[in-house]
Amino acid sequence: MVAVSFSGQAQKCAKKKLADKEIREDYDYRGQSLFIELGNGDSTTLNIVLYSKQNYRIFVVGDQKLGKIDYEIIVPRKKFNRVVQNIQQKKVTAYKKDPNGFYLYNTEGERIPIGEVMVNDTIWSRETNTTEELVYNSRDAESTFWTATPGKTQMISIKVFVEKTDKPQRGCIGVYVGREFSNAYQFRR
């Protein structure tokens, strides 16, 4: 029952004109934008994918009765490190070599053994460390929107915070994710 009520409110929010044409410009906002009803003191996070070599404009607006709405854009950064998982000692046969490092063979075509040696067999694994980089904070920014043209496809998180007030209100929030196609992938005849 609650889900139906929520989806009904989300539909109402999607139909509202929350952003003026001046801030929207010629970007296409139909792909990953989100319209949701929130109340004072609420927050939400939206994870989206930015595709490479395309221009993006992201901003958040809401009903005036909600008061101040802040948002942050966070990019997760992954770093991979090779780490030693295990080292095992093994006994292997050593073979005779010529001065150039090539194996010598007997008359039957087999390598000539000279004894056994202990060697270390190292098993490697990969460790992933993820950090988050704050790339935009509406509280400190000079512009009300964030623009980017990523060099490679990446995921970002948009965290939205609605100001807490003494008188609780509910209203619509629009997280606008606009995409403007660059000339790199234009169709040509």
Structure overview:
The chain has 2 domains: 134 residues, Jelly Rolls, CATH 2.60.120; 44 residues, no CATH class. It is built from 2 helices and 8 strands. The two termini are 52 Å apart. It has 189 residues and is mainly beta. The N terminus is likely disordered. The radius of gyration is 29 Å and the shape is elongated. 10% of the residues lie in helices and 52% in strands. It has a 4-stranded antiparallel beta sheet, with helices on one face.
What attributes does this structure have?
189 residues, mainly beta, Jelly Rolls, 2 domains, four-stranded antiparallel sheet, 2 helices, elongated
Topology:
Blueprint: H1 2-15, H2 21-24, E1 34-39, E2 43-50, E3 54-62, E4 69-95, E5 113-137, E6 146-148, E7 154-162, E8 170-181
Short description:
With about 190 residues, this protein is mostly beta strands. Helix content is about 10%, strand content about 50%.
CATH architecture of the largest domain: Sandwich
Number of domains: 2
Q: Report the strand count.
A: 8
CATH topology of the largest domain: Jelly Rolls
Strand order of the largest sheet: 1-8-3-6
Number of helices: 2
Helicity level: under 10%
Percent of residues in beta strands?
Answer: over 45%
Largest sheet: 4 strands, antiparallel
Task: Please state the structural category.
Answer: mainly beta
**Computed Rg:** 29 Å
Cα-to-Cα separation, first versus last residue:
52 Å
